[in-house]
Structure formats: structure tokens, C-alpha cells
């Protein structure tokens, strides 16, 4: 089932007196449950594409239809609400709050949204913490766990609201190869178990090895699209 459809998407930036075309007529469909990696050299448009998919940036022209909703027809407030409710983010720098425990970091997106009771938030958080292999570490602080464990907390935080889509920007960049493999395995397992859609932007060959689909960008265009 189709989750995202992009039709002739272009994105232009003004850089001084120059106009930079970051995306040049991208046509792309992403189905629910995909485990997809976007790759390409620096300046190819990877981050711009990820930001548009994540409702963090707007397009200059074209259409993005997201779960049958056209993003271009939403105002800024509606777009922000849609992002909060449907998209989880994983960053290479983890972005954990140092004064919050593992469980509190995972609960944070739910606290912000104010839709769940305290007991519901705790139940959801503890379940996903267990799913990412951190059971028993709920009350530890980020300074008390390893980098790989911090990234697992970030994954749990992105998944706690059961989003339609998780976007991961270079999620293994700060990890050694063994830990990176473990983290990717966890995301693959969650993808298969929960049917959560994952889209990565990465240079890491390890992520590409595990991806079920690889899209190569070059100069704002899709150069190749390989399914495995």
C-alpha cells in the first residue's frame, strides 16, 4: 500500500545571488513497510529530500501526497501537527536530554503531545525500551550508557507513538561497525515486526547492505532505484 507519492518535486534555494536547485523533478513512491536507503554524494539532495518527506521543508513545485493527504494544501500548523502525529526521527547525534532518564527521554514525545495518561505513557515506553534491548536501563541517564545504547534510546523515542514513518539521518555515523550492525538489526526487526516504514539518508555501506531498496540521488535527480 502506497504511503508517499512525490510527483515532479523541485526544491530551489536562494544562496546569495545564486539559485540552487536541490531537487530537480523527483518522482518517487514509497510503500508502507519499506526499509529504504537514500544514498548519494554530498550535495546530491539527500537531506533536502528527507526534510521534505519529513514535513520539515516545503517544496518549490510539484506534489507530495502523504497517506492520501497532499502536503502542499496544508498550512504550517497543520503540517506541524501531521509531522508530530505521524513521523519519528532518528539523528546521528542522538539528541537525548541529559537530565532525563532513558524512560523519560522515550516518553518525551508523548508528554509534548499530551494525548496519553501517565500510566499509558509508561506502558508504551517500557514496551519499546524492551523491544530495543534496553530492559532494566529505564532509570539510567544518557551519561551512564554507551553510544550504541543512546542510539537505541533514540530509536525507541522515534517509535513510541507508533508512527507511520521513521526517518533516520546517518543513524550509524557515530557508532563502531559492530554496534552499528546491532542497531541496524534492531531497526530491521522492528520493521518486520511492526511494519513500520524506515527511510534512511546515509553514506554507510552497512546500512545500504541491509536496505531492501536503495535510491541513488545525483544532482537532485534519482539516478537509480533498486529493490532487493
Task: Describe, in plain words, how this protein is organized in 3D.
By secondary structure, this protein is α/β, with parallel strands linked by helices. The protein has one domain: Rossmann fold (3-Layer(aba) Sandwich). 36% of the residues lie in helices and 30% in strands. The protein has seven helices and ten strands. The strands form two sheets. Strands 6-7-8-3-9-10 form a six-stranded mixed β-sheet, with helices on both faces. It has a four-stranded antiparallel β-sheet with strand order 2-1-4-5, covered by helices on one side. Strand 7 (165-169), helix 6 (177-194) and strand 8 form a beta-alpha-beta unit. Helix 3 (102-113) packs parallel to helix 5 (147-159) and helix 4 (118-131) crosses helix 5 (147-159). The two termini are 18 Å apart. 35% of the residues are buried. The mean pLDDT is 92.
Amino acid at each position: 500500500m502506497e504511503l508517499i507519492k512525490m510527483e515532479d518535486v523541485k526544491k530551489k534555494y536562494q544562496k546569495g545571488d545564486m539559485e540552487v536547485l536541490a531537487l530537480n523533478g523527483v518522482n518517487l513512491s514509497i510503500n508502507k513497510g519499506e526499509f529504504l536507503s537514500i544514498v548519494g554524494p554530498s550535495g546530491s539532495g539527500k537531506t533536502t529530500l528527507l526534510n521534505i518527506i519529513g514535513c520539515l521543508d516545503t517544496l518549490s513545485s510539484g506534489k507530495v501526497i502523504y497517506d492520501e493527504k497532499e502536503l502542499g494544501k496544508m498550512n504550517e500548523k497543520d503540517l506541524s501537527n501531521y509531522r508530530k502525529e505521524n513521523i519519528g526521527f532518528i539523528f546521528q547525534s542522538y539528541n537525548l536530554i541529559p537530565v532525563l532518564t532513558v524512560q523519560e527521554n522515550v516518553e518525551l514525545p508523548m508528554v509534548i503531545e499530551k494525548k496519553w495518561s501517565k500510566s499509558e505513557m509508561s506502558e508504551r515506553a517500557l514496551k519499546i525500551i524492551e523491544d530495543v534491548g534496553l530492559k532494566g536501563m529505564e532509570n539510567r541517564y544518557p551519561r551512564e550508557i554507551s553510544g550504541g545504547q543512546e542510539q537505541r534510546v533514540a530509536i525507541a523515542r522515534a517509535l513510541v507513538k507508533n508512527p507511520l514513518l521513521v526517518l533516520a539521518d546517518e543513524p550509524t555515523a557515530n557508532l563502531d561497525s559492530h554496534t552499528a550492525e546491532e542497531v541496524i538489526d534492531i531497526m530491521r526487526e522492528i520493521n518486520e515486526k511492526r511494519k513500520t516504514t524506515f527511510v534512511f539518508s546515509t553514506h554507510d555501506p552497512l546500512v545500504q547492505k541491509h536496505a531492501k531498496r536503495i535510491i541513488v540521488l545525483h544532482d537532485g535527480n534519482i539516478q537509480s532505484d533498486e529493490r532487493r
